[in-house]
Amino acid sequence: MFAYLIGVCLLPKLHIGRFIGIAIVTILSFALMFAPLLLGSLYDNYKGIPPPLDITDREVNPIFLQILPYIGSNSYLYSLLSQLTQSIHRIFPFARGLFEDKVANVWCAMHTLHKLNTYSIPLLQRVSLLATIIAILPACMTISTSPRKELIPWALASSAWGFFLCSFQVHEKSVLLPLLPMTMMLGGDGGLGVEMRAWVGWANMLAVWTLFPLLKRDELRIPYFVLSLLWAYLMGLPPTSLDLYLGKQARKGGIRMSTSTVHLGFYATMVGWHLAEAFIETPNGKPDLWVVLNVMIGAAGFGICYVWCTWQLLLRSGILQEWFDFRTEMGKEGKKDEKKRASTPTPHGSKTKSLRSGKTPKKSRWRGGEESGRREYLDFGGGCAGWF
């Protein structure tokens, strides 16, 4: 949303008034959000109510207060800074590690193959920050250069998938964030089309499947199966129906063969995983085998969702179409040049043919005679070659 708002302030022309208005609303919104916390801390300080232990303890406090050792713990400023920094400290929980439980993102999947806990927390913070920026950059750049309302759900979905896959300390339920804009696409133009239903339905089924270990821990297996099968039935998805991929709808040009292969492969894998998890005991020393497989498969599927959302955003924004049109036009010009060169005899060829026939060679059709024409021809060809 920040990239979209920046785009509408800069394109198609600079809107100073709109920018100032958005800045004022943003500042007021943050002030309203933090007002209860800050006013509450001031009230407690006024009444002499001691703050919680984790706020007064210097070792637990974030570094923001450690660099201000001369502020008295009884002052109003200390109360404000303590509450503010503790809020920020909890919004960015760097002290809790790269991930806390088995979550289907990049880091947990990589940890299965290579133990990431051997690296320091500051290094993991920087790497995750860099990976997250790279993942959300295509969506932010696209929506800022093409700030259109119909592209907002696609940009939100792409950036949310990037955050879920690459950010620091992600919870399993955070997968609901990218699912929200993706599911909203069902209400847009072509939302109930075959391709859209297939992708959105598959993403939701895959996401709730990755949540099964968490739901099982809370004894929610029956609601999981009932609601998942109800969703599949209403959307016409496997395992309740294969018509979306193999029936008449698919044959009418709705879904590509590659998409059908990937989706059906994941559906079969999810069903097989449930059967194995229910009836096959894990080997000795590998109690989390099925959960780890769930993470690996889910992370791969979510990566595909991220790529699809980002690709669709680029296509619908027109950026790729403009580039392809430009390349196509330049290719046509190049082919015309090749045909022109093939059909037009060079001055040397014309002279040779005339000498063989015993006729006097005609003056070159190029301006300035034979040598000048050859020079213009070579210059034009070199200029075209620079585009390819």
Give the helix/strand layout.
Blueprint: H1 2-10, H2 16-47, H3 53-56, H4 63-66, H5 76-91, H6 106-113, H7 121-145, H8 152-166, H9 176-184, H10 194-210, H11 212-217, H12 221-235, H13 243-246, H14 248-254, H15 257-279, H16 289-317, H17 319-343, H18 347-357, H19 369-385
Helix pairs in contact: 1-2, 1-7, 2-5, 6-16, 7-8, 7-16, 8-9, 8-16, 9-10, 10-12, 10-15, 10-16, 15-16
SSE string, helices as H and strands as E: HHHHHHHHHHHHHHHHHHH
Number of strands: 0
Shape: globular
What gyration radius follows from the Cα positions, in whole Å? 31 Å
Low-confidence blocks of residues? 348-388
The structural class is mainly alpha
Q: State the helical fraction.
A: over 70%
User: What is the mean predicted local confidence, pLDDT?
Assistant: 81
Strand content: under 5%
- Amino- and carboxy-terminal Cα gap: 37 Å
What attributes characterize this protein structure?
388 residues, mainly alpha, globular, disordered C terminus
Provide a brief overview of the structure.
With 388 residues, this protein is mainly α. It has helices spanning 2-10, 16-47, 53-56, 63-66, 76-91, 106-113, 121-145, 152-166, 176-184, 194-210, 212-217, 221-235, 243-246, 248-254, 257-279, 289-317, 319-343, 347-357, 369-385.
